[in-house]
């Protein structure tokens, strides 16, 4: 037994030692190395951002290390730590959460490695931010609903996972607009955790509860929006209720084209991905860069979607 | 005294009745045909998973790979269910086959290696999730044919297809467990595996069968889910296994094996569904829903252990 | 008063009911220092309820218990154990992955500055075992020891706990003769130290060897207390049963010429070698030998529970290929295991379901069980074997040991075997049920069934067998005919 402990301890020391000497090595090749930690590679929108990053990095001749945080802020922090140990030139972070992913940004800055947030924000300010202001997307969606309803009516809101930046900001934007229209009434809000099936269940239950009182649905993403559409269709109520959601994923664009979904807010994944790489590249080369690159949203209603369909 | 013992045995049925009664006083919409149609449709997918895992748990095992099987089966079916590609039976069989295959793989490894089912199915859970992502390239598979979508949202004589499937599966699973040799063997293996073997039961075969059935039903659940949300998602079904196991436990099936029923599981599934539904009707945040669910799970197990003590 | 005559425990008017049924009715009992007091009675006589009350697991409805002139009837298990009453249970309660020493000191570990003092624990455990004449390495894990060794360690644990009264419930049921000897030496040693022992056993021979006094319970009632010398065996039995018993055994006269089973050169390294025997229709072949002689191992090999390395098994002239019990049952071999709980029945299933388990295919059509047929068949055999249950749907776990055994035998018989192996068929069951099982064996041989009976009880072997095969250390020593066989001769071969 005692030998086992001895061996284990010496093995541990050995590994630590190796790690030390490896991180001491200077990255002497000219190629810029960018470490990327993505929220979740199981999400279509995020996969789109990362695909565009890869393309852009190839064009610029930078080396990308993309890792998947699988929605875990803890994992994300560990990934950033390992980027720091590898001495990458720049880190791109697609934060899991507003607060919980902040330590990742702090750690990178403390290690003097520039860090660029893409798509969503953290509480701690990074070196640069590339994305869209999610508050704006909430405003755009709610403004559309307000116009369609003529400033009067009952709204239900299907939220993303509570506590995430996208959820907080989209809700904030929507509520800002609602203040301007006192005739708009939020009769229920609840999370469906970004999930289509869960949103469908929730919508069914609301239909039971409120029936025809519901005039419009605002869903924080398209998956949930499409779930709500399905529930309304099954109940034969779709033509009486307006549904708007955000992201403009392929399914949603199809649905808008067919008239099932009234509108989706286009968040430009490609521009976000490309913009993040461009900014990271500039920082690494020591060139001038913008601290905040905002990719504008665009509301897509029926008739707008064709150019966006592949 | 005898009366009280019976009360305990049917404890979960009574708890269910009382909860329904209370809810119907608070929300008038609760006790309507349309609301119950919705509740039963919503629980149908969890019910299929729970039926399958009931068999497994009665043999003293566990199946954690259900959620991943849902995803693999869903994605495989969706890939073959585009309009004007194959007749609807092809994606359906593909989904069922995928589920059966993973289930049989579970059974094979568990019986051959003697590794605990918990570990083996934990492994296939991860493998399955990976397979679903590989098959779909990490993207949802959409654009499904109308006939495929009909399974999840169509109606037969005014009754949603999902409910019809649920009823058929309930009757089928109950019959298997209560009336067939296989059912008797399942109880025997879970009650005392060694004695079952010494009684001439092929324990390996029984275990292979229960894991395959569990996989098959999870495959069916995957098809239904895909058809219901009209897209095959590689990340669908995450955590479904826990809901299914919770329903089985609430329904009075003992996690140590040898005891349990499909009817109990159905009540467990409905109880979870009713609580989710009513808290939504009351617009209570999901935070509270989780707390309530946890209390009910623990309560059910306490009830079960009290029942066991009074028996011995 | 002489210290040895000093009363240590006095029980007066103890009563206890479950659901309105009296399990104990006005029990009296007393125990003196340094005495071995046997508690006798059939299963269901109230012995275990009585003991559970004594150690505080159950509360009595009425009556008093005084221990060292202190009333203890309302104390809990823990305080009673601390006062000095310990029970050695039938099932050994030890943590398999802890060492012997760690088990002995479980819950009262010796510490030095918050850390476990393993050295002191091992040292003290070793002294304790040596003082009892046990030569066991205290660093061995409990799972690597035999049941007998574990039992002796349990006793050592009780002693180290300063027990003044030790209750032993069927302590010898899993022990070989030699181990029983060690146990009895330990008991004598404890006696000389003034420890009093309440001894529960179904084995008459042991009682007469070790007990000073005997108290008999029947149907929850106190019958009598007598000095062992004042009570002969047959009157003890009739006190327990409440009626005169006919002669226990009756020799078979139905042995036929037809060979049912033929075992040739059966061999598995480390278990048994060169086993050769035949069993004829209508006869009982007894297999005798000490624990670990390979008796059960041979039975398991024939029944397909374990595989064997070489040799041949032929049933009615047909060479068998048996890979599992399923094959053996199909070929017509039945096995009633010595370990009823592990290999006998499914506790959660009903009497009916257990009885039909091995023959369910006969009561079913296309996968579906025909419950009417099943009910009819199992109710018939339950009546034949006189299985006492509240109904065919009662769970087997709620039956007494004797009735559980009958359910297992019923299950085996329902598969229509031509050979049945009974491994310790009467272990741990009361004398009434024992007699019924002997009768049953007789009836079975009369119908032409071949029976192999493995037993540690020589009177049983001698009384029931047409021939006796004696094993020693995995080797077949001899096969004695009924005329040749005697207790001395069998032991002579068994110890060889």
What does this 3D model show about the protein?
The complex is a heterotrimer of chains A (310), B (312) and C (496). Chain A is α/β, with parallel strands linked by helices. Chain A has helices spanning 2-24, 44-60, 73-86, 102-110, 134-149, 165-180, 196-210, 222-234, 250-258, 269-285, and strands at residues 33-38, 63-68, 90-93, 115-119, 128-131, 153-159, 184-191, 216-219, 242-247, 263-266, 292-294, 298-301. In chain A, the strands form 2 sheets. Chain A has a 6-stranded parallel sheet with strand order 2-1-3-4-5-11, sandwiched between helices. A 6-stranded mixed sheet of chain A has the order 7-6-8-9-10-12, with helices on both faces. In chain A, strand 3 (90-93), helix 4 and strand 4 form a beta-alpha-beta unit. A two-stranded antiparallel ribbon of chain B has the order 1-2. Chain B has 14 helices and 2 strands. Chain B has helices at residues 2-9, 11-26, 33-58, 66-79, 89-113, 117-136, 146-153, 161-179, 181-191, 193-198, 203-228, 240-250, 262-281, 286-311; strands at residues 155-156, 159-160. In chain B, a hairpin with a 2-residue loop joins strand 1 (155-156) and strand 2 (159-160). Chain B is mainly alpha-helical and 312 residues long. Chain C contains 17 helices and 24 strands. The longest helix of chain C is centred in the middle third of the chain and has 16 residues, at 177-192. The N and C termini of chain C lie far apart (49 Å). Chains in contact: A-B, B-C. The interface between B and C is medium-sized, with 24 and 35 residues.
By secondary-structure content and strand pairing, the structural class of chain A works out as: alpha/beta
Shape of chain A: elongated
Assembly of the depicted chains: heterotrimer
- Count helical runs of chain C: 17
């Amino acid at each position: 037994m005692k030998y086992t402990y001895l061996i284990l301890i010496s093995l541990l020391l050995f590994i630590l030692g190796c790690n030390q000497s490896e991180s001491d090595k200077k990255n002497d090749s000219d190629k810029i190395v960018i470490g990327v930690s993505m929220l979740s590679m199981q999400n279509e929108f995020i996969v789109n951002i990362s695909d565009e990053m890869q393309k852009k990095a190839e064009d610029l001749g930078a080396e990308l290390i993309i890792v998947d945080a699988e929605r875990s802020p803890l994992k994300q922090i560990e990934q950033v730590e390992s980027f720091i140990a590898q001495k990458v030139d720049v880190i791109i972070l697609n934060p899991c959460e507003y607060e919980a992913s902040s330590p990742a940004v702090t750690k990178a800055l403390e290690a003097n490695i520039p860090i660029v947030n893409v798509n969503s924000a953290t509480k701690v300010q990074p070196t640069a931010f590339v994305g869209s202001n999610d508050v704006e997307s909430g405003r755009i969606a709610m403004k559309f609903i307000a116009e369609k309803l003529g400033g009067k009516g009952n709204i239900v809101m299907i939220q993303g996972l509570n506590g995430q930046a996208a959820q907080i900001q989209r809700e904030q934007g929507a509520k800002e607009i609602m203040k301007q229209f006192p005739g708009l009434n939020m009769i229920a809000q609840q999370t469906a955790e970004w999930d289509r099936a869960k949103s469908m269940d929730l919508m069914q239950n609301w239909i039971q509860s409120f029936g025809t009182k519901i005039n419009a649905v605002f869903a924080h993403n398209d998956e949930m929006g499409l779930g709500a559409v399905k529930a309304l269709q099954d109940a034969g109520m779709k033509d009486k209720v307006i549904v708007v959601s955000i992201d403009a994923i392929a399914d949603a664009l199809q649905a808008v084209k067919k008239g099932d979904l009234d509108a989706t807010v286009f968040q430009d994944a490609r521009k976000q991905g490309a913009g993040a790489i461009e900014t990271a590249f500039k920082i690494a080369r020591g060139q001038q860069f913008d601290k905040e690159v905002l990719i504008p949203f665009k509301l897509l209603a029926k008739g707008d979607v064709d150019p966006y369909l592949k | 005294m005898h009366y009280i013992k019976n009360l305990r045995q049917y404890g979960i049925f009574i708890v269910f009745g009382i909860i329904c009664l209370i809810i119907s006083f608070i929300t008038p919409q609760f006790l309507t045909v349309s609301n119950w149609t919705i509740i039963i449709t919503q629980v149908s997918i969890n019910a299929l998973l729970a039926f399958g895992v009931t068999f497994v748990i009665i043999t003293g095992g566990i199946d954690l790979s259900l959620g991943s099987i849902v995803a693999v089966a869903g994605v495989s079916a969706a890939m073959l269910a585009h309009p004007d590609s194959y007749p609807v039976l092809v994606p359906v069989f593909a989904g069922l086959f995928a589920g059966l295959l993973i289930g049989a793989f579970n059974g094979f490894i568990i019986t051959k290696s003697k590794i605990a089912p918990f570990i083996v199915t934990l492994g296939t859970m991860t493998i399955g999730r990976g397979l679903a992502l590989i098959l779909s390239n990490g993207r949802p598979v959409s654009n499904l044919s109308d006939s495929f979508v009909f399974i999840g949202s169509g109606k037969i004589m005014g009754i949603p297809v999902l409910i019809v499937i649920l009823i058929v599966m309930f009757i089928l699973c109950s019959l298997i467990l209560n009336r067939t040799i296989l059912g008797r063997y399942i109880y025997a293996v879970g009650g005392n595996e060694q004695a079952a073997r010494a009684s001439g039961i092929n324990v390996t075969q029984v275990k292979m069968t229960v894991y395959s059935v569990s996989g098959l039903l999870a495959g069916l659940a995957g098809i239904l889910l895909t058809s219901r949300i009209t897209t095959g998602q590689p990340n669908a079904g995450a955590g479904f296994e826990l809901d299914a196991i919770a329903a089985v436990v609430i329904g009075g099936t003992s996690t140590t094996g040898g005891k349990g029923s499909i009817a109990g599981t159905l009540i467990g599934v409905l109880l979870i569904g009713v609580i989710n539904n009513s808290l939504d009707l009351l617009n209570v945040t999901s935070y509270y829903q989780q707390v309530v669910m946890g209390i009910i799970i623990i309560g059910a197990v306490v009830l079960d252990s009290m029942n066991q003590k009074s028996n011995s | 008063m002489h210290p040895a005559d000093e009363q240590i425990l006095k029980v007066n008017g103890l009563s206890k009911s479950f659901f309105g049924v009296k399990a104990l009715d006005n029990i009296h009992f007393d125990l003196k220092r340094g005495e071995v007091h046997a508690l006798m009675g059939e299963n269901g006589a109230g012995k275990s309820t009585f003991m559970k009350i004594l150690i505080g697991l159950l509360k009595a409805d009425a009556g008093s218990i005084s221990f060292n002139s202190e009333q203890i009837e309302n104390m809990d298990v823990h305080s009673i154990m601390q006062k000095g009453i310990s029970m050695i249970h039938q099932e050994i309660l030890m943590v398999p992955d802890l060492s012997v020493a760690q088990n002995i000191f479980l819950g009262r570990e010796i510490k030095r500055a918050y850390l476990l003092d393993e050295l002191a624990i091992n040292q003290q455990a070793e002294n304790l075992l040596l003082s009892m004449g046990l030569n066991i390495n205290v660093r061995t894990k409990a799972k690597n020891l035999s049941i007998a060794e574990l039992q002796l360690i349990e006793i050592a644990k009780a002693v180290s706990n300063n027990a003044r009264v030790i209750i032993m419930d069927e302590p010898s049921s899993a022990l070989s003769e030699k181990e029983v000897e060690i146990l009895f030496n330990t008991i004598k040693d404890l006696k000389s130290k003034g420890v009093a022992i309440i001894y529960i056993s179904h084995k008459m021979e042991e009682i007469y060897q070790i007990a000073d006094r005997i108290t008999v319970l029947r149907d929850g009632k106190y019958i009598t207390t007598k000095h062992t010398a004042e009570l002969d065996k047959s009157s003890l039995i009739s006190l327990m049963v409440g009626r005169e018993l006919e002669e226990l055994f009756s020799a078979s006269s139905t042995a036929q010429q037809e060979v049912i089973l033929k075992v040739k050169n059966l061999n598995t390294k480390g278990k048994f070698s060169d086993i050769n025997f035949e069993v004829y229709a209508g006869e009982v072949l007894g297999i005798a030998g000490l624990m670990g002689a390979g008796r059960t191992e041979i039975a398991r090999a024939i029944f397909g529970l374990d595989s064997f390395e070489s040799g041949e098994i032929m049933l009615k002239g047909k060479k068998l290929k048996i890979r599992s019990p399923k094959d053996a049952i199909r070929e017509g071999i039945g096995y009633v295991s010595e370990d009823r709980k592990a290999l006998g029945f499914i506790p959660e299933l009903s009497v009916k379901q257990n009885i039909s388990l091995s023959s369910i295919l006969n009561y079913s059509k296309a996968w579906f069980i025909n419950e009417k047929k099943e009910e009819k068949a199992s109710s018939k055999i339950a009546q034949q074997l006189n299985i006492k249950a509240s109904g065919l749907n009662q769970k087997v776990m709620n039956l007494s040991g004797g009735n559980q055994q009958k359910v297992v035998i019923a299950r085996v018989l329902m598969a229509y075997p031509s050979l049945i192996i009974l491994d310790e068929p009467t272990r741990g069951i009361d004398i009434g049920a024992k007699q019924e099982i002997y009768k049953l064996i007789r009836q079975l041989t009369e119908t032409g069934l071949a029976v192999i009976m493995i037993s540690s009880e020589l009177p049983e072997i001698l009384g029931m067998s047409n021939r006796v095969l004696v094993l020693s250390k995995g080797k077949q020593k001899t096969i004695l005919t009924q005329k040749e066989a005697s207790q001395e001769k069998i032991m002579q071969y068994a110890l060889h």
